[in-house]
Amino acid sequence: MVETHHPRRGSMGYSPRKRAKKTIPNIRSWPEWEGQPKIQGFPGYKAGMSHAFVVDYRKESTTSGQEVRVPITVVEVPSVKVSGLRFYEETNEGLRTMGEVWASNVDESLKKRLPIPNNYNTDKMWDKIDRDLVDEVRAIINTQPKKVSGTPNKTPEIMEVRMGGGALPERIDMGEDMLGDELNYQDFCESGRMIDVSAITKGKGFQGHVKRWGVKLLQHKNSKSVRNVGNTGVFRPGYTRPTVPQAGQMGYHQRTEFNKRVLKVGENGEEVTPEGGFINYGVIENDYVILHGSIPGPSKRLVVMRDAVRDDRYEVHEPNLTYISTESNQGG
C-alpha cells in the first residue's frame, strides 16, 4: 500500500501568533563588536521598495562580477538624540539595572512619553554610578519624527541600544561625551556591511484556517464547510492542542531579517525618491540607507537595525551601484 506523505501545515516556530505589544521592535540580543566603541543599533522609517543595478559582489554566485538587477528597500534614517545612559551589572540571573543618567537638555516632546523633572541634576546622578561595578552600558535614544514628513506620528519613540567595542571604560567615556547630542546613521554603520533588521509585520487581522496556516481545502462532499480543518484532534486529552491549525490573528508580529547588505548610505533623498514620491510615504528629506532585498513591515513602519549576529561567513564588500530606479510607482 502506498504510504501517504502528510507534512504539517505551517510552522510552530512563532507560536503563539499574537499581536505585538508595541510598534517598536524589542531587540533581545546584541553581538560583540571588536572595533572602536560605537552604538550597535539605529532606527529608521521604511519608505518603500525599488530596484537597482549593482555589480554582483557574491563570490559564489553564477553572476559574480557581472551587473545584475536587484530589489532594494529604501529606509529614511533621520538623526536621533541620546537622551540617557543605562548601566547594567552581570548577575547569576542575567543583567540587572544599576542606574541611569539622563541628559539635562532632553527634548520637550518627550513629555508625551514620560514625565520629565524640572530640576534634574546630571552631575549628581553621575556621582551615584560606581564605574567599577558596571558590566555593560546602553544608550537610551529617541527618534525625531518631526523631521520626517512621510509618517503622521509626531511623538518620539524611545528605545535602548547597546554600546559595543573597545574597553568598557572607553564606552562609558564615549557615552558621557555624546549624552544629549545627536547621532547620525554613519555613526552606526557604513555601506558594504551586513546588518539585521527587525520590524513589526503588516497586520492582516482575524483570518481563517486556510489563509493563516495553509491547510488544504476539504473535498466538495463535505457537508459543513470547505475552508476548515478536518478535525481538531483526538478524543483525549479533552482539549484542543496548540498544534492544531485554527483561525486567529494573522500579521502584526515582530520579525527579524538577518544579514541584509547595506548597499548605500546617502544624504540627499532626491537621489532615490521616485517621481511623485514613494506610495503611502512621500518624499525622503533626510539621510537614507539602501538595503539589498526586502524587510518586514509596511511603509511608514519604524524599523530597528543592529549589527549582524550571523555575519561570520560574509566579508565587507563596497557595493558598486551603477543605477537606482527613480521611475514613478504611481501607475497609470
Q: What would you note in describing this structure?
A:
This protein is mainly β and 332 residues long. Helix content is 7%, strand content 31%. It has helices at 122-127, 168-178, 209-213, and strands at 38-39, 41-55, 67-76, 80-91, 94-102, 136-142, 158-164, 182-183, 194-200, 206-207, 248-249, 254-266, 288-292, 302-307, 321-324. Strands 1, 4, 5, 6, 7 and 8 form a six-stranded antiparallel sheet that branches. A six-stranded antiparallel beta barrel has the order 2-3-13-12-9-14. Strands 10-11 form a two-stranded antiparallel ribbon. The protein starts with 37 loop residues before the first strand and ends in an 8-residue tail after the last strand.
Quick rundown:
With 332 residues, this protein is mainly beta.
| Order of secondary-structure elements | EEEEEHEEHEEEHEEEEE
Q: Radius of gyration in whole Å, from Cα?
A: 24 Å
SS field, number of helical segments: 3
Task: Report strand %.
Answer: 25-35%
The unreliable regions are: none
Instruction: Supply the helix-strand structural class.
Output: mainly beta
Give the beta-strand count: 15
Helix content: under 10%
Largest sheet: 6 strands, antiparallel
Can you tell me the overall shape? Answer: globular
